[in-house]
Write a structure and sequence with these properties.
Layout (H helix, E strand, L loop, with lengths): L1 E5 L6 E5 L3 E7 L2 H6 L3 E5 L3 E5 L4 E4 L7 E5 L7 E3 L6 E5 L9 E7 L4 H4 L10
Parallel strand pairs: 3-10
Antiparallel strand pairs: 1-2, 2-5, 4-9, 6-7, 7-8, 8-9
């Protein structure tokens, strides 16, 4: 199923191919707690940026590997390239245009990221 989504103002639009039932992660690391993301990590082949590439700004911190993309107009972060899966895209389920039919939210201990990051590796593979 194709799930369309966007930032708040609609300048940045995307589509992600994912099942009808979304299994996502709720991370407790410092940036995720403050931004409120619900994480759906997919292979890059299942993500399409439809509009707004010119409106994206990027934020990096710590190792600089994760690339947090946000809309330069409204400030919402609809997706990013995660440190755990640099070959994938982490889409914020809260930015879907319509809520999925069913969401399964699994906690992820990002505060102890080094211990748990390997549990995410399979999410960006076909």
């Amino acid at each position: 199923m194709i799930h369309p989504g966007s930032c708040h103002c609609g300048a940045v639009r995307f589509e992600v191919e994912a099942p009808t039932t979304i299994v996502c992660k709720d991370c407790n690391c410092s940036i995720c707690r403050k931004s409120g993301n619900l994480h759906l990590i997919v292979p890059k082949s299942r993500f399409k940026l439809v509009a707004g590439e010119d409106r994206l700004s990027v934020y990096t911190f710590n190792t600089g590997i994760a690339q947090h993309y946000f809309c330069s107009t409204c400030g919402v972060k609809p997706f990013y390239i995660p440190r755990s899966n640099p070959d994938g895209v982490d889409v914020n389920v809260r930015c879907f245009d319509e809520p999925p039919e069913e969401i399964v939210v699994e906690p992820f201990d990002g505060q102890d990221w080094e211990e748990h990051a390997t549990s995410l590796l399979h999410l960006s593979t076909e």
